[in-house]
Amino acid sequence: MTGSVHPFARSDRTALGRWWWTTDHWLLGAVAILITLGVLLSFGTSPAAAARLHYDASFHFAIRQSVFGVAALAILVVSSMMTARGVRRTAFIVYVLTILLMAALPFLGHEAKGATRWINIAGFTLQPSEFMKPALIVLVAWMFAEGQKGEGVPGVFIAFCLYGLAVALLLIQPDVGQTVLITVAFGAAFWMAGVPISWIMGLGVTAFIGLGSTYFLIPHVHARVDTFLSPDKADKHQISQASEAIAAGGLFGRGPGEGVMKRGVPDMHTDFAYSVLAEEYGLIFSLALISLFAFLVIRGLYRALRLSDPFEQVAAAGLFVLVGQQALINVAVNLNMIPTKGMTLPFISYGGSSMLAMGLTLGMALGLTRKRPGAYTANEGLARAGAFA
Length: 389
What we know:
Helix content is 66%, strand content 3%.
């Protein structure tokens, strides 16, 4: 994405100039397209959502999504300018603040749909766990890298403590979906740090048993799994409407703003925004969107695995896995492939916390994968695999 016209000359030594010429333009372009699509799609869903929720302004959600989109882009640019040290420091501060807020949720948060995940701050409804996710991945990658140095730092132990604390606070809310998400990303970082396969298998078995137990311990998880496994015996209004919307879109869709199903489903502008997109723009556009996410993740991983520093390599890859996994879960729910989970489609679904946190996530990932002297090695792949063996 380096056409004949550039906003900065190569000789530009300002912070923005250096940022522009060292950042991957393909990744930056993919993120910009996703943010733009999220804002444009909100103009199609906002009137129906506003009418259903009794807002006077038809474009209430579209205006807010536009503001969130601009703010997310600003966060992305600022965070992608950071050095690896800056990324670590930012992750540490964000992790501590969000963990404190998550610990306060049982006392200060408000309940919605059987979970207490949000807290009101100055009129803004914040979901702390959205920001905790990228911070956790960066910190555990840092600890894994420190453990590799063999200088007596118990990196693996600290990483597991950070992960365990986050999981405990998520399950208190409860939020099983986010728990699955950070577990997969943590496992990916664990594997890429070069730990023995027996450790990874142990983590997988423990995670499977732990998450499986939520079926018996958390009522709404039990209900959602039963609904998914026995559709004929349960009320599946929302997922049925979503499936009908996707089918009604055909190849080319009904047209922008012409979706019908969004008028009767509460979460069509948030968790089920993909269904609205499929109905209004069709199968081809939906597949193009999925391909855009796939491109973002694959190119991001390619860039990450070529990094020479073990921390930067694992942290960047983990962040891209986090984004890809969240997109995969959202689309799978919309297609009725897995039990319903309230998880946004990155940059596309309406939601301030999600939009801003994704800006931070990919901003840090872009910052870690920027071109710097000595940042990349000629040998692609995991040069330090087996360092913990």
